[in-house]
Design a protein that fits this description.
The structure holds two protein chains of two kinds.
Chain A: H1 2-27, H2 34-39, H3 45-54, H4 61-74, E1 79-80, E2 86-87, H5 88-123, H6 128-142, H7 145-159, H8 181-215, H9 218-225, H10 230-261, H11 263-268, H12 274-284, H13 287-315
Antiparallel strand pairs in A: 1-2
Helix pairs in contact in A: 1-13, 5-6, 5-8, 5-10, 5-12, 6-8, 7-8, 8-10, 9-10, 10-12, 10-13, 12-13
Chain B: E1 4-15, E2 18-29, E3 34-37, H1 44-51, E4 59-64, E5 67-68, H2 74-80, E6 85-88, H3 92-95, H4 102-113, H5 118-131, H6 137-141, H7 150-162, E7 168-172, H8 180-196, E8 199-204, H9 207-213, E9 216-221, E10 224-230, H10 231-236, H11 241-248, E11 298-300, E12 303-305
Parallel strand pairs in B: 3-8, 3-9, 6-7, 7-8
Antiparallel strand pairs in B: 1-2, 1-4, 4-5, 9-10, 10-12, 11-12
The chains are: A mainly alpha, B alpha/beta.
Bound molecules: adenosine-5'-triphosphate and magnesium ion.
C-alpha cells in the first residue's frame, strides 16, 4: 500500500512539473506576448484588454500561473477566442471518449494478435510458419499508419463501397457508444485495425524475442523436466515471465496514444478525438486549446504510467518485498 | 543383488554434429545411490538430459525396469518425464519460476500427470513438503521462491521431483549452490529418498559428496566412463589415473581444508578434439604407446576400469 501512495505522489509531482514547463514555454518566454496569442489573429483592442486583465498578464508570473491552472482545472472556464468563445476543457472531455474507444479497441487487437503470433513463432522457431509470420510483422511494422488509413478509406469508402464486402462500412466519423453500440463498433473497426497494425508487428517481434531468450532459462528447463506440454510451458512459464517487459512497453504506448499520439488515425478517419483536437489547435494557433490538450495528455501519460507500475506489482511478487508474506 | 531400476548400455549422444557421449554404460540399482563424477564438461549433465529424453539419443539402449525408452516419441517421453524420471537442478533459485508460488508449481506437475482437483493436489503438495521437513508446509507452499531460503527452496524442488512418485530421481549438482551445512542436510535427505522413494542418480564433481552419500560411482571423463564400481572399492583403491588425480584434488572429507588443493594439470579435451585413443592420455602421467588405442571397460579388482595398465593382469 505504501508503494501505491508513493507512486501517486510521484505522479502528482510530475504533473505539476509539466504544467510549469508548459506554462513557461508559452507565457514566460521573453518577447512573447501571451495576450495577443490567446486572442488569436486579428482580435479587437477591447478583447485584448479584457484578456490581459482576466489572465492577470499585468501581474507577476506566479499569479499568472495560478490563474491559468485555476482556469484549466478548477473553474474550467478557459475560453478559446479563435473558436468564438468555445470553452476548451469541455471540448477536451468530449474528445476523450473517442480517443479512449479508438485506443482501447486497438490495444486489445494488437495485444491479442501479437501474443498469438509471438507464441506460435516461439513454439516452432525458424520453421516456415515462423518465417512467414515474422516477415509479415516487419511488413506491418513498416507500413505508415496514415498511408494504410488512406488506402483503406479509398477501398471501403469510395471504390468498393457498394460491393457486398464493404457495404457495412459507415461513412467516416464517430458514432457514440450510447447512441448505437453496433454503429460505434462499425465506425471504429477499420480505425482499430489500422492503428493496431504497426503495434501488432512490433509487439509480436518483441514477444518472440523475449520468449526465445526465456527458453534457455533454468525455469523453462524445469518446466520441460516436469513433463508439461510445449504449449503449457510457453503459456504458464515463458509468457508469464515475458509479460513483464511487455507490460511496460504497452503502458508507454497506450499512454502516448491516449495523450494524442493517435492523431494520424483520427485525422484520416475523421474521428473527433484528442489527437484531432490537438491538430486543430496547432493549425489555428489556438493557445488555450493547446494548453488544455497538452496538459490533459500529460495527465493521461502520468496516470497510465502509475497504472503500469501497479500492474507490475501485481505480476511480479519480487517487487512486493516489504509487504507481508506476498 | 538389488534389481536395476535403470540400465544404460552403449549410450551415444551427438549434439551439433559432435559426439558428446561415447558408449556410456551403467546401472542404477534400487536402494543404492549412484554417483556420477567428473570434471566440468565431462558430459554428466548431457547424460541426465538424455535420460530425461531432452536430448536425442544417437544410439544405445536405455531401459527403465524392463521398458526400452530410447527412440520413444516426444509425446511418450512427456508422459515419463516428471512421472517416472524426475530431476532436481543445481540452482533452486533459477529453477523455480520466480513469479508463481512454490506450491502452485508443485501442484502444476501433479495435475499434469494425474487427474486430481486443485485442493487434492495442494493437499499432496503440503504433505510432500512436510516429508521433506519443510516447517509450516501449508504456509510455505503459498510463498514465492525468493521468499524461501536456499535450503528450503531445494527441499521444495525435491518435493516437486517426488510429487508423482518417480522410479528414478536425477539430481544434477543439487548442493553446489548451497552453503556447507545446508549441503549436508540436503544430501542426508537424498539418502533417505533413495532408501524409501526412488532410485537416485547424484551428479557431482566432488568426490567428497560421493563418499558421503553414494553406494556406487561412475567416473566420467570427456564423455567416456573411465572407472565404475562400488564406492568402497574405488575410494579405497582408485585404479584409473584420472580417478586417482580426482581423489588427490579432493580434500579430506572430515579433515581441515588444505591451503592449496592439488589440481589436475592441463585441460579436459573438448568433444571436437577428443583423442582417438585413451581420452585421458594427453594429461596422464603413465601414458605410453599402448594408449593410442581406446581401452574398453574391463573388470579388474572388483570394479570396471578402462586403462591399459590393468589389461591382461586380471
Ligand atoms: N546443446 C549442446 N550442444 C552442443 N554441445 C553441448 C550442448 N550441451 C552440452 N554440450 C557439450 O557437451 C559437453 C558436456 O557438457 P555437460 O554440460 O554435460 O558437462 P558437465 O559434466 O555437466 O559439466 P559441469 O560440471 O560443468 O556441469 C561439453 O563439452 C559441452 O560443451
Ligand atoms: Mg552439468
Amino acid at each position: 500500500m505504501r508503494s501505491v501512495a508513493l507512486r501517486l505522489g510521484q505522479g502528482a509531482c510530475v504533473l505539476v512539473g509539466i504544467s510549469m514547463l508548459v506554462f513557461a514555454v508559452f507565457f514566460a518566454t521573453p518577447g512573447a506576448d501571451p495576450t495577443a496569442r490567446i486572442a488569436g489573429r486579428g482580435a479587437s483592442p477591447q478583447i485584448l484588454a479584457r484578456i490581459r486583465h482576466d489572465y492577470g498578464f499585468d501581474r507577476a508570473l506566479p499569479v499568472q500561473y495560478i490563474r491559468m491552472m485555476d482556469k484549466l482545472f478548477v473553474a474550467r472556464d478557459l475560453t478559446s477566442f479563435v473558436d468564438h468563445g468555445e470553452r476548451v476543457v469541455p471540448e477536451v472531455f468530449a474528445a476523450a471518449p473517442v480517443t479512449l474507444s479508438l485506443v482501447g479497441g486497438a490495444a486489445i487487437i494488437w495485444v491479442g494478435l501479437s501474443v498469438l503470433i509471438g507464441v506460435v513463432c516461439a513454439l516452432w522457431p525458424n520453421g516456415i510458419v515462423d518465417r512467414v509470420l515474422m516477415g509479415l510483422s516487419v511488413l506491418l511494422l513498416s507500413i505508415p499508419v496514415f498511408w494504410l488509413g488512406e488506402v483503406v478509406n479509398l477501398v471501403t469508402q469510395s471504390r468498393y463501397h457498394d460491393t457486398m464486402l464493404f457495404s457495412w462500412v459507415p461513412p467516416l466519423g464517430y458514432v457514440p457508444f450510447l447512441q448505437s453500440p453496433s454503429g460505434w463498433f462499425r465506425s471504429l473497426l477499420l480505425p482499430w485495425l489500422v492503428l493496431s497494425s504497426s503495434f501488432a508487428g512490433l509487439y509480436a517481434r518483441v514477444l518472440r524475442a523475449e520468449l526465445m531468450a526465456a527458453s534457455g532459462e533454468d525455469y523453462m528447463r524445469t518446466a520441460r523436466a516436469k513433463g508439461l506440454s510445449p504449449l503449457r510451458i510457453m503459456l504458464n512459464h515463458g509468457l508469464r515471465m515475458s509479460w513483464l517487459g511487455f507490460v511496460s512497453l504497452f503502458g508507454l504506448d497506450v499512454a502516448q496514444l491516449i495523450g494524442g499520439g493517435a492523431l494520424l488515425t483520427e485525422v484520416v478517419f475523421a474521428l473527433p478525438g484528442v489527437g484531432h483536437l490537438t491538430y486543430r489547435a496547432l493549425t489555428d494557433l489556438d493557445l488555450p486549446l493547446i494548453m488544455a490538450t497538452v496538459l490533459y495528455s500529460a495527465a493521461f501519460v502520468v496516470i497510465a504510467n502509475a497504472l503500469v507500475d501497479l500492474v507490475y506489482l501485481a505480476l511480479d511478487p519480487r517487487l512486493r518485498t516489504g509487504t507481508r508474506h506476498g | 543383488m538389488a534389481e536395476p531400476i535403470l540400465q544404460v548400455r552403449d549410450l551415444c549422444v551427438r549434439l551439433s554434429g559432435r559426439l558428446i557421449l561415447d558408449h556410456v554404460s551403467f546401472d542404477v540399482l534400487r536402494g543404492r545411490t549412484l554417483g556420477v563424477v567428473g570434471e566440468s564438461g565431462s558430459g554428466k549433465s548431457v547424460t541426465a538430459s538424455a535420460l530425461m529424453g531432452l536430448v536425442p539419443i544417437a544410439s544405445g539402449s536405455v531401459k527403465f525396469g524392463s521398458r526400452e525408452v530410447a527412440g520413444l516419441s516426444e509425446r511418450a517421453w512427456r508422459a515419463l518425464r516428471g512421472r517416472q524420471i524426475a530431476m532436481v537442478f543445481q540452482d533452486p533459485m533459477s529453477a523455480f519460476l520466480p513469479v508463481r508460488s512454490v506450491g502452485a508449481q508443485i501442484d502444476e506437475q501433479i495435475r499434469a500427470h494425474e487427474r486430481l482437483s486443485r485442493t487434492d493436489a495442494r493437499a499432496r503438495t503440503v504433505q510432500l513438503l512436510q516429508r521433506m521437513e519443510v516447517p509450516d508446509a501449508a504456509q510455505m507452499a503459498r510463498r514465492y521462491p525468493h521468499q524461501l531460503s536456499g535450503g528450503l527452496r531445494q527441499r521444495a524442488m525435491i518435493a516437486m521431483a517426488l510429487s508423482c512418485r518417480p522410479d528414478l530421481l536425477i539430481a544434477d549438482e543439487p548442493t553446489t549452490a548451497l552453503d556447507v551445512t545446508v549441503q549436508a542436510q540436503i544430501l542426508a535427505l537424498l539418502r533417505e529418498v533413495s532408501q524409501r522413494d526412488a532410485g537416485v542418480m547424484l551428479i557431482t564433481h566432488d568426490m567428497g559428496v560421493v563418499a558421503q552419500s553414494c553406494a556406487d560411482v561412475v567416473v566420467m571423463y570427456a564423455g567416456v566412463i573411465v572407472e565404475r564400481g562400488s564406492v568402497e572399492t574405488i575410494l579405497q583403491a582408485p585404479l584409473h589415473p584420472y580417478t586417482q588425480a580426482l581423489m588427490a584434488a579432493t580434500p579430506e572429507i572430515d579433515g581441515p581444508r588444505p591451503a592449496r588443493l592439488a589440481t589436475i594439470p592441463g585441460q579436459p579435451p573438448s568433444p571436437a578434439s577428443r583423442p582417438q585413443g585413451c581420452v585421458f592420455q594427453p594429461r596422464c602421467g603413465y601414458a605410453h604407446e599402448a594408449c593410442g588405442r581406446r581401452p574398453p571397460l574391463r573388470s579388474h579388482a572388483g570394479r570396471d576400469v578402462a586403462c591399459v595398465l590393468y589389461e591382461g593382469a586380471a
